[in-house]
Amino acid sequence: QVQLEESGGGLAHPGGSLRLSCTASGSIFSIKLMGWYRQAPGKQRELVADITSGGRTNYGDSVKGRFTISRDNAKNTVYLQMNSLKPEDTAVYYCNQGRVVPGPTPVKLLEVWGQGTLVTVSS
How far apart are CA 8 and CA 17, in angstroms? Predict the structure, then answer.
C-alpha cells in the first residue's frame, strides 16, 4: 500500500519561505510522477508543481519563479521550496504520486494523495 507523508507546513510572513517534504513508501518511487497541489478555502484544487521521473518540472502560473520542486530518489522524497510567499499562497498543500500514460496526448494519472499540510501566509 502506497503512503505519502507530508511535512513542513506552517505559518510564514509575506515574503518569507517554507519548504515542504513528502516521503513515499510502498512504491517504486523513482519511476513515479510526483506533484504538489493546493486547495484554498472555497476554491478548487490546483496544480502547484510536478516533476517526472526524469526530472522534468512543470509549474502553475501563479508560482513560477517563486517555487521550486525537486526530488531525491534515494530518499523517496519530493520537496517544494516556496520563496517570496504571498497571502494568496495560503492553502492546504497535498502531495501526489502518479504516472504519465504515454501516447499522442500523454495523460497524467493522479493515483495517491497525501493527507495535506496547511500553509498559512500572514503578517
Answer: 11
> How far is 61 from 3, CA to CA, in rounded Å?
28
Which amino acid is residue 57, in one-letter code? T
- Grid coordinates representing 13 are 510572513
Task: Give me the mean pLDDT over the 40-69 stretch.
Answer: 96
34: nearest Cα among 46, 24, 20, 19: 24
CB 72 within 8 A of CB 79: yes
* Cβ proximity of 24 and 113 under 8 Å: no
Complete edge-to-edge strand list for the sheet that includes strand 3-7: 3-7, 18-25, 77-82, 67-72
| Largest CA-CA distance found in the chain, in angstroms, rounded | 47
pLDDT at 39: 98
Tens-digit pLDDT profile for residues 57-107? 999 999 999 999 999 999 999 999 999 999 999 999 999 999 988 899 988
User: Are the CB atoms for 100 and 31 separated by under 8 Å?
Assistant: no
